[in-house]
Design a protein that fits this description.
- By secondary structure, the chain is an alpha+beta fold.
- The chain is 36% helix and 21% strand.
- The longest helix is centred in the first third of the chain and has 23 residues, at 4-26.
- The chain starts with a helix and ends with a helix.
Length: 331
């Protein structure tokens, strides 16, 4: 029996590395089936575990396997993380000639018991526009508190207890708020006047990945994404990481650029908050079209939700004269 243990340990080490390598590789096949895309959300976690597995392989003198695991893990990390620069800052803005606005995005967490932290963060950063997901019934009285500072509001009817999306703005809407919500309250779009420059703001909350209904959810909103103006900013809880097939599909459909480099925004509530930078997932996304120029985007301190808030600073390109007239007529 003692002679069998070394063999079993070797087989276990090889099987573990093979499982990690397989799961890591599957994440690149999201184009083939949504089931594979689910693996992509944990690409960095799997790559880190594969790097750790190199040590026992080296101890057992499985040199080819150790080299393979190291190359695969480093390649996965290198193809996913942008080490060159922070993509969250897409284009510099001349602060002297172009007004800069702020967007605050947050998944409120439908049962968040610290609404005071959310209101304090909004008061501290004074965004021009706010996008919320999970704006549940429990949150309605707190959103009413914000009406004085944000008189223009769209709060979509909640499809379930977790609530719908919401858009709050200091600046006037140029489109009818009654027509803003769609897809059972998970998608909202309004046109806003940013100091004479019209732009569309979208709040979105996608479903969970396969085996849940994320792909069918995307298919339901695909048409809405394909008919947007060049001055559009989209923020939401995508339940998908920036490098996933799901996010890539949405960006391609709407001709968006995904803000990369914002960092992890979600961690399961059972885990310590200190773990978020290391094992959290960046599933809250902000996307912009060519007419929106981003100065920077970053996460803010925790506010009682299992998601971190995101603050985006941006400017809006001037609209062509014909489109400005069209917005005025619609208003």
């Amino acid at each position: 029996m003692r002679k069998a243990w070394p063999i079993l340990l070797r087989l276990a080490a090889l099987a573990g590395v093979a499982a990690l390598a397989g799961a890591l590789s599957f994440g690149y096949l999201g184009w083939f089936h949504p089931a594979f895309d689910s693996f992509s959300h944990f690409r960095l976690h799997l790559a880190a575990l594969l790097l750790v597995a190199v040590l026992p392989l080296a101890v057992l003198r499985y040199w080819p396997e150790a080299v393979f695991a190291m190359v695969l893990a480093i390649g996965a990390i290198g193809s996913t993380v942008d080490f060159a620069e922070d993509d969250a800052a897409i284009a510099g803005i001349d602060m002297r000639s172009t007004p800069v606005f702020r967007l605050f995005h947050l998944n409120l967490r439908f049962d968040n018991d610290r609404p005071d932290l959310v209101l304090s963060a909004i008061g501290a950063h004074r965004p021009d526009v706010i996008t919320f997901t999970e704006a549940s019934i429990e949150w309605r009285e707190w959103l009413e508190v914000l009406e004085g500072a944000y008189p223009y509001q769209v709060i979509c009817p909640p499809p379930s207890r977790i609530g719908g999306v919401a858009i709050l703005s200091r600046r006037p809407f140029l489109s009818e708020s009654a027509e803003a919500c769609s897809d059972r309250g998970s998608f909202a779009r309004v046109d806003i006047d940013f100091a004479g420059r019209p732009a569309s703001v979208i709040a979105m909350h996608l479903g969970w990945p396969w085996p849940f209904g994320q792909q069918s959810h995307f298919e339901r909103i695909a048409h809405d994404l394909s008919v947007l103006s060049d001055r559009t900013i989209l923020a939401g809880d995508f339940n998908a990481v920036p490098w996933s097939q799901t996010v890539r599909q949405i960006a391609d459909m709407g001709h968006f650029q995904v803000l990369r480099g914002i960092g992890p925004t979600w961690l399961h509530r059972s885990l310590p908050d200190a773990w978020l930078p290391w094992v959290g997932l960046p599933i809250d996304q902000v996307m912009v079209k060519d007419g929106i120029r981003v100065e920077g985007a970053r996460t803010l301190d925790a506010v009682g939700s299992d998601h971190l808030p995101i603050l985006v600073e941006f400017s809006v390109d001037a609209a062509p004269q014909s489109q400005s007239v069209e917005f005025a007529l619609r208003n």
